[in-house]
Design goal:
The structure holds two protein chains of two kinds.
Chain A (H helix, E strand, L loop, with lengths): L22 E3 L2 E3 L5 E6 L6 E7 L2 H20 L2 H17 L1 H12 L3 H22 L12 E3 L2 E5 L5 H14 L3 E5 L6 H12 L7 E3 L4 H8 L6 E5 L2 H10 L6 E5 L5 E4 L5 H13 L11 E5 L3 H12 L20 H16 L3 E4 L14 E4 L6 H4 L6 E7 L2 H9 L6 E5 L3 H10 L4 E4 L18 E2 L4 H6 L2 E3 L3
Parallel strand pairs in A: 6-7, 6-9, 7-8, 9-10, 11-12, 11-16, 12-15, 14-15, 16-17
Antiparallel strand pairs in A: 1-2, 3-4, 5-19, 10-18, 13-14
Chain B lengths: L25 E5 L5 E6 L3 H18 L4 H17 L1 H10 L4 H21 L3 H5 L1 E2 L6 E9 L2 E4 L6 H13 L4 E6 L4 H12 L8 E5 L2 H10 L5 E3 L6 H11 L5 E3 L8 H6 L2 E9 L3
Helix pairs in contact in B: 1-8, 2-4, 3-4, 3-7, 4-6, 8-9
The chains are: A alpha/beta, B alpha/beta.
């Protein structure tokens, strides 16, 4: 049965969005030297929120210079002192967590329940975790004399703006690097608010620089001769460009790219839990998740039962206002992302899969796509091969564990996978055979500051989180 | 003429066998004094593709072998090389090394296999972890091999560099396709013979003597190759072009550097970290 819920909107009075923003360079907000401006919107309403800089080459240069100037002192500070700055940041983020969560939902379109209960707690946890590493770098695994790299150019996506910022900035700073970070074009606001946190924490000017912009700004940053490290989370397509453009330099690179995760359900799975896991796997954050469980691989004998339960469970999903505390599925982040999801879903129709769409009322304004399931999907279909990055699930079947593994691995991606079975030995054997960096068994889409995250194959290289996440920002100084 | 020596035919090493190049081409190898030594098989693009196929099937077996087994196999390579020590020394001398340097290099190469062999069952301890996540989960990370590594090792010291590059790749379960230039070919082919008699499964190591600039771009572009070690590419332009090509399927890369990449850092270049979550509860 479906309960009627009264609206329960989260108040927006806690956030104060300025009509326009500059760039955060060398500890303060400055005007752009050669950039243009664009408007950032609320994807749930299409309301204009603020005017943002599309940073130009000179802006990028100024930011890199500031980071370079700050690097000497920052990298030579005692690790314990760098750690204390990071602890300060972690605490301020906890104090202002609600403000960040509301702003994140406004600019991104994700449900407040997720930004409040998942994103922001993880953000603070990441800073807290890496703060403690700053004076323990000799245990990071790069030898007895670990050295920071220098200036890191960091580019993050729009799906988890603050969480990705934390994944990038926290380990970089702990290791003694300084950073220039570019948030995604459509979601700049929380990164700009983070600049204020750096000021409140009295972080030395230039240690963190935040420049807004789109692809050209990112490209100028990656190709800047005076950076030593590139960290990128985003599409595999852009990842390839970056890997190619650093050829011949000694820039160290970590790439966290796309995925097409298989969520494998065996016939002995606890079926209600599996249904919850499938829902969480593909509809969490509107499916705007690189590790989303977008390919459901279900054992043939339980397919009908599972799908019936899945459709039934989907009826209770509440789609709509991201700021409503009862909302499960929020807005699609942008018009262009919506168009991409629509185009891929249409390919599912034309290639012969069967579409099932949740009947739900969608708001008139803003960008929306109802939770959708495709059945009769073959491995050749585009919806089984390409990353949709939306609330669209493709269902395939298998008979034997070997076939499940074969199908799960039959993709150029290798970011994540799910396994649902009550048999322990099968979990371990299947997990062993999956070519994926994160395997969730009887759970899905769980993240933690201590847990390494990153992909095999074309899902990129390097890991974020935990000790190995720190290694990505260090080099061996051993002779 | 009963004392007429039998000259060795120098061939490629693919899938545990020693074929000639399918192209029928050879590279004439001469000593520093200009004396004819051998007609080396000159590998082609097609040979490289065959080697990648072999490496994939080698990977399937080798990557699931137990760490204990891999350690023993690597140790066995050292045993076999020890028995052929004089042969390696004389080949290095033929290719231009002094007797003293050659002796030292061969012993170091043998010792290097022993050192790497010991890593096989320690890698997961040193690079893996149980992660204390904030919640009711058991969460662990383990290192796994990346897959197929294309290797263009440094040419000097010829044997030691080859051993360093190959051992670092295969100790964790990777397989490899190694390109060797004319000037380090003799020891490389003898190494292939040692590997062939050391219980290293067929296809785990494939060695192609070739013109590097001709064959390397094909491996860099091959979409079933997962990683490329081009530490031996001294030509800057070729190095850049290989790295750019390798970006197409996001190969892991190891670039040439002034001091080189050694030991554990080299092993880690070809490791993936896999993290597995499971809930706890009654």
């Amino acid at each position: 049965m479906v309960f009627e819920y009264a609206p329960a909107p989260e108040s927006t009075s806690i956030v104060d969005i300025q009509t326009s923003y500059g760039l955060f360079i060398n500890g303060k907000f400055v005007k752009s030297k050669d950039g243009k401006r664009y408007k950032t919107i609320n994807p749930a309403t299409e309301e204009v929120l603020s005017e943002i800089v599309l940073a130009g080459k000179k802006d990028v240069d100024a930011a890199v210079k500031a980071a370079r100037n700050a690097y000497g002192k920052w990298s030579k500070l005692p690790g314990a002192t760098r750690g204390k700055y990071l602890y300060r940041i972690a605490r301020i983020l906890q104090e202002r967590s609600r403000e960040f969560a509301v702003l994140e939902s406004i600019n991104n379109g994700k449900p407040i329940r997720e930004s409040r209960d998942v994103d922001l707690p993880l953000v603070a946890a990441h800073f807290f975790h890496y703060a403690g590493w700053a004076d323990k770098l000799e245990y990071a695994g790069v030898g007895s004399n670990p050295q920071s790299l220098g200036v890191a150019g960091q580019i993050i996506p729009w799906n988890f703006p603050m969480l990705m910022l934390a994944w990038k900035i926290a380990p970089a700073l702990a290791a003694g690097n300084t950073v220039v970070l570019k948030p995604a074009e459509t979601t700049p606001l929380t990164a700009l608010l983070f600049a204020e946190v750096c000021q409140q924490a009295e972080l030395p000017p230039g240690v963190v620089n935040i420049i807004t912009g789109a692809g050209e700004t990112g490209s100028a940053l990656v190709n800047h001769p005076n950076i030593n490290k590139v960290a990128f989370t985003g599409s595999t397509e852009v990842g390839r460009l970056i890997a190619s453009s650093v050829a011949g330099t000694n820039k160290k690179v970590t790439l966290e790219l796309g995925g097409k995760a298989a969520n494998i359900v065996f016939d002995d799975a606890a079926i209600d839990q599996a249904v919850e896991g499938i829902i969480n796997g593909i509809f969490f954050n509107q499916g705007h998740v690189c590790c989303a469980g977008s390919r459901l691989l279900v054992q043939e004998s339980v397919k009908d039962e599972l799908l019936d339960l899945l459709y039934e469970r989907m009826q209770t999903l509440r789609v709509g206002d991201p700021l409503d505390k009862n909302t499960d599925v929020g807005a699609i982040n942008s018009a262009s992302q919506l168009a991409k999801i629509q185009e891929l879903a249409e390919s599912g129709d034309t290639e012969g899969a069967d579409r099932w769409t949740l009947k739900c009322e969608l708001p008139e304004r803003g960008f929306w796509f109802p939770p959708t399931v495709f059945t009769n999907v073959t491995q050749a279909h585009r919806i089984a091969r390409e990353e949709i990055f939306g609330p669209v699930l493709s269902v395939l079947t298998f008979r034997t564990p070997q076939e499940a593994i074969e199908k799960a691995n039959n993709t150029p991606f290798g970011l994540s996978a799910g396994i649902w079975t009550e048999k322990g030995s099968r979990i371990l054997e299947v997990a062993n055979n999956l070519r994926a960096g994160v395997v969730w068994a009887n759970t899905f889409n769980k993240f933690d500051a201590t847990s390494p995250f990153g992909g095999y194959k074309e899902s990129g290289y390097g890991r974020e989180g935990g000790r190995v996440g720190l290694e990505a920002y260090l080099k061996s100084g051993d002779k | 003429m009963n004392d007429l020596s039998i000259m060795k035919t120098h061939k490629l090493f693919i899938n545990g066998a020693f074929p000639r190049s399918e192209s029928g081409r050879t590279l004439e190898l001469k000593s520093s004094k200009g004396q004819f030594i051998a007609n080396l098989a000159r590998a082609s693009k097609k040979d490289a593709r065959e080697a990648v196929l072999a490496a994939r099937s080698g990977f399937q077996k080798w990557s699931i072998a137990t760490a204990y087994n891999r350690g023993q196999v690597l140790y066995r390579v050292a045993e076999i090389m020890q028995g052929r020590k004089d042969q390696f020394i004389s080949e290095l001398v033929t290719q231009g090394a002094s007797k003293r340097d050659a002796e030292k290099e061969v012993q170091n190469s043998i010792d290097r296999w022993v050192w790497y062999a010991g890593w096989s069952d320690k890698l997961a301890m040193v690079n893996g972890s149980a992660n204390p996540v904030a919640g009711n989960f058991f969460n662990f990370s383990v290192p796994e091999p990346t897959g197929i590594v294309a290797i263009i090792p440094e040419s000097k010291p010829a044997l030691y560099s080859l051993v360093e590059a190959i051992a670092a790749a295969i100790v964790s379960g990777n397989s490899c396709v190694v390109l060797v230039a004319k000037n380090s070919a003799l020891a490389a082919i003898s190494l292939a013979e040692s590997l062939a008699t050391s219980d290293v499964p067929a296809g785990v190591v494939n060695i192609l003597t070739c013109d590097i600039a001709e064959v390397a771009p094909h491996l860099a572009a091959h979409s079933d190759v997962n990683a490329i070690d081009f530490t031996g590419v001294a030509n800057k332009e070729l190095a850049i072009s290989l790295e750019k090509t390798a970006a197409e399927n996001l190969k892991r890369v190891l670039r040439p550097t002034k001091n080189g990449t050694h030991g554990l850092n080299r092993i880690k270049a070809w490791l993936e970290i896999k993290t597995v979550w499971h809930p706890r509860g009654y």
